[in-house]
């Protein structure tokens, strides 16, 4: 690690090892080591010196070099030459592309800069390549602001209202838990390094319980699995509180000292005995009582109960309130007192990010529109199709997409595609590949991969800051996001000095003096000083300093101050035409829509699949391996039926998120999902969806065939 110039070029004899960080949307945020030989990355492995990574990468990221050197990478700017959506482009030079884009944006901004919309999310989780220079650019331009809600905002709002921030117990202390509730998380597939701590606890005698509508790989490895209906988690949480209060094992001392509103919470909990919750959740009363007894045994013995919550459960109408209800449990049980006790959904609130320095919201005051509107990314389909006017404001005329693939991932995909196909919508996509979204762009600009740029990474699963060094020079003509937005700023005449900050300066600005940057450069990671028992004696980052079971802030907003049991937008069985609840968790070998174009991982995943319970399949004349159509009023898609024991009765499970171009009929599971939002955080309701399923015969169809639909799925 003595090389002074980064990245080490081909003239440097190797092998050279370069420290970096995984950029993807995962709570583990692994540290990795890239081995470089004469300017080419030849090996990628987990950093054994980083305690959270411990030398292990997941199946997906261990193949990252396939992504970097993929023969279909976009390595030069592309300009559309065919009709919108045909994916036909010709190469152009950077100067020509940037000049054309700047000219179009200038013309739109002259009418109203709010007609320009950025769209991005977690294609990289890096603070620098994610939003640093991009945010400065759009603030100075006066463009519409994007509400980035598509993944976690319901849960975030719930934690903010209850705990005061996105904080929780340190992940490594789960190894000391005596009972672990894995709630709405397939940890083996999506949180592998937490699973290591859970296994340590299990070997030491801890009991593991999985709460999830699907019998996941994780559920199979747990002692108990509660397969509840999607969207009923708050009722289950209240039933567990009911038992604590009625049986006398609630920690009244902790509640009195360190919470607000526990008496009101108790009154509501008393309305949810196990029998009522069992009927509502679709599980047995005995299962709830068994879990309650296991928790009671730990609480009475002063042993820690840890809850590993994940974001799947908050993707229903009542998802925010459900997270609130679960977040109240450790206070009711007094679990925060102990190492290995408490709850973890996200740790990202522990990081002292210098938001104003990095993102420069003050630049809005220099723009033509100091107070631009906000557009919720979860309603992109409606936004792109809105004619403009009224409270909405101007019609969206230009869309700049980076770090995302909305044509595949946004809800109600038929409307999203319809909007992206507008001839009068000017779309620019910064990408590494021709994704479904890039296929509908006017310009595609080649973006670097993680091995080719600097970045700073936080985590929402642990409390380490990681630095990513570039290991190789950018391939072809690829440029970092930061460089692209700097170049656009220059062509639009933005003269503020902040647009000249290079990426290493941005890395230093991200956390300022709160982290020893020289140590980051040397070691690749630095741990925050986060206590093992952060709330053993209260000290919550709420206005009261207590765990706010009753939220005055929510009451002031007209919301229920206590966690509520909120029914789904589309409750199971409410519409006889669509009797099945539908959820679309990630396929094990994909990460959202990332990695779908990698042959090794797509081959491992097989085909787009729908998991059904055998009883539901038999009622529809469906056998294992049949092609089926899943449909509702919003659209349809074709999937391969799998009767593999993972689906509970009444729930259909479509594994996502396949690109349209790799799907049998050119559509994916987001044809079915709606743009309805959650109770808190204005988040999407991907798992609040009712469908019907029927068998189809694809024998006479070619690629993207249509089995004679009688409706327009768009």
What's this entry about, in short?
This protein is of the alpha/beta class and 714 residues long.
Features:
disordered C terminus; six-stranded mixed β-sheet; 29% helix; 714 residues; six-stranded mixed β-barrel; alpha/beta
Give a verbal description of the structure.
29% of the residues lie in helices and 17% in strands. The protein has 714 residues and is α/β, with parallel strands linked by helices. The strands form 7 sheets. It has a 6-stranded mixed sheet with strand order 5-4-17-16-15-6, with helices on one face. A 6-stranded mixed β-barrel has the order 22-26-23-25-24-27. It is globular.
Distance between the termini: 54 Å
Number of β-strand runs? 27
Residue windows where pLDDT falls under 50 for at least 5 positions: 704-714
Anisotropy-based shape: globular
Strand order of the largest sheet: 5-4-17-16-15-6
The biggest beta sheet reads: 6 strands, mixed
Could you say which structural class the secondary elements and strand pairing correspond to? alpha/beta
What is the mean pLDDT?
A: 95
Strand content: 15-25%
Rg, rounded, reads 25 Å
- Helix coverage percent: 25-40%
**Alpha plus pi helix count:** 23
SSE blueprint and pairings:
Blueprint: E1 16-21, E2 31-37, E3 40-46, H1 64-68, E4 78-80, E5 89-91, H2 94-111, E6 116-120, H3 127-141, E7 145-147, H4 153-162, E8 179-183, H5 187-190, H6 192-203, E9 207-211, H7 217-220, E10 224-226, H8 233-247, H9 252-258, E11 259-260, H10 262-269, H11 274-281, H12 285-300, E12 305-309, H13 319-333, E13 342-344, H14 355-359, E14 374-376, H15 380-385, E15 398-402, H16 406-409, H17 413-420, E16 426-431, E17 443-446, E18 455-457, E19 464-468, H18 481-491, H19 503-511, H20 517-523, E20 525-527, E21 547-548, H21 552-556, E22 580-583, H22 599-605, E23 609-611, H23 614-618, E24 627-632, E25 635-642, E26 651-654, E27 690-695
Parallel strand pairs: 6-15, 7-14, 8-9, 8-12, 9-10, 11-21, 12-13, 15-16, 16-17, 22-26, 23-25
Antiparallel strand pairs: 1-2, 2-3, 4-5, 4-17, 18-19, 19-20, 22-27, 23-26, 24-25, 24-27
Helix pairs in contact: 2-18, 3-18, 4-13, 8-11, 8-12, 8-13, 11-12
């Amino acid at each position: 690690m003595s090389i002074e110039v980064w990245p080490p070029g081909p003239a440097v004899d190797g092998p050279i090892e370069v420290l970096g960080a995984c950029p993807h949307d995962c709570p583990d945020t692994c540290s990795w080591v890239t081995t470089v030989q004469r300017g080419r990355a030849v090996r990628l492995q987990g950093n054994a010196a980083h305690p959270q990574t411990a030398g292990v990468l997941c199946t997906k990221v261990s193949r990252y070099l396939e992504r970097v050197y993929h023969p279909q990478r976009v390595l030069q700017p592309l300009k559309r030459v065919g009709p919108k959506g045909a994916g036909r482009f010709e190469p152009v030079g950077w100067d020509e592309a940037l000049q054309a884009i700047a000219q179009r944006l200038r013309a739109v901004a002259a009418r109203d800069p709010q007609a320009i919309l950025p769209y991005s999310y977690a294609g990289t989780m890096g603070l620098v390549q994610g939003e640093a220079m991009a945010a400065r650019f759009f603030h100075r331009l006066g463009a519409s602001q994007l509400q980035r809600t598509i993944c976690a905002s319901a849960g975030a709002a719930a934690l903010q209202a209850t705990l005061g921030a996105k904080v929780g117990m340190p992940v490594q202390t789960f190894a000391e838990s005596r009972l672990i509730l894995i709630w709405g998380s397939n940890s083996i597939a999506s949180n592998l390094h937490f699973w290591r701590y859970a296994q340590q606890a299990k070997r030491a005698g801890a009991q593991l319980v999985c709460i999830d509508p699907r019998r996941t790989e994780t559920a199979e490895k747990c002692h108990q699995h509660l397969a509840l209906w999607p969207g009923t988690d708050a009722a289950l949480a209240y039933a567990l509180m009911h038992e604590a209060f009625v049986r006398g094992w609630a920690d009244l001392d902790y509640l009195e000292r360190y919470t607000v509103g526990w008496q009101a919470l108790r009154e509501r909990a008393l309305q949810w005995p196990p029998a009522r919750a069992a009927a509502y959740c679709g599980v047995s009363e005995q299962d709830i009582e068994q879990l309650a007894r296991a928790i009671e045994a730990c609480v009475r013995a002063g042993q820690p109960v840890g809850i590993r919550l994940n974001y799947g459960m908050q993707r229903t109408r009542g998802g925010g309130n459900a997270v609130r209800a679960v977040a109240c449990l450790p206070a009711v049980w007094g679990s925060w007192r102990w190492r290995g006790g408490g709850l973890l959904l996200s740790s990202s609130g522990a990081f002292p990010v210098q938001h104003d320095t990095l993102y420069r919201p003050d630049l809005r005051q220099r723009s033509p529109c100091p107070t631009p509107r906000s557009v919720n990314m979860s309603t992109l389909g409606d936004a792109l199709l809105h004619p403009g006017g009224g409270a909405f404001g101007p019609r969206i005329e230009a869309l700049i997409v980076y770090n995302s693939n909305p044509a595949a991932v946004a809800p109600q995909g038929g409307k999203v595609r319809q909007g992206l196909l507008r001839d009068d919508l000017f779309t620019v996509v910064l990408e590494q590949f021709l994704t479904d979204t890039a296929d509908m762009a006017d310009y595609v600009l080649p973006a670097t991969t993680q091995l080719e740029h600097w970045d700073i990474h936080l985590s929402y699963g642990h409390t380490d800051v990681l630095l990513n060094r570039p290991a190789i020079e950018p391939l072809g003509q690829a440029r970092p996001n930061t460089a692209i937005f700097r170049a656009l700023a220059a062509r639009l005449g933005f003269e503020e000095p902040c647009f000249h900050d290079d990426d290493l300066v941005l890395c230093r600005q991200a956390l300022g003096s709160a982290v020893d940057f020289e140590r980051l450069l040397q070691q690749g990671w630095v741990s925050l000083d986060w206590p093992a028992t952060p709330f053993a004696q209260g000290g919550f980052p709420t206005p009261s300093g207590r765990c706010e079971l009753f939220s005055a802030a929510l009451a002031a907003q007209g919301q229920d101050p206590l966690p509520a049991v909120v029914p789904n937008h589309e409750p199971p069985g409410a519409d006889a035409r669509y009797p099945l609840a539908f959820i679309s968790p990630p396929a094990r070998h994909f990460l959202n829509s990332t990695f779908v174009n990698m042959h090794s991982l797509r081959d491992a995943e097989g085909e787009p699949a729908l998991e059904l319970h055998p009883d539901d399949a038999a009622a529809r004349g469906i056998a294992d391996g049949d092609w089926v159509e899943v449909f509702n009023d919003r659209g349809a898609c074709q999937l391969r039926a799998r009767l593999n024991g993972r689906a509970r009765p009444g729930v259909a499970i479509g594994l996502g998120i396949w690109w349209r171009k790799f799907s049998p009929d050119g559509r994916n599971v987001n044809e079915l999902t709606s743009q309805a939002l959650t109770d808190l955080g204005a988040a999407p309701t991907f798992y609040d969806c009712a469908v019907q399923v029927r068998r189809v015969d694809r024998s006479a169809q070619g690629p993207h065939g249509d089995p004679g639909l009688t409706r327009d799925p768009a």
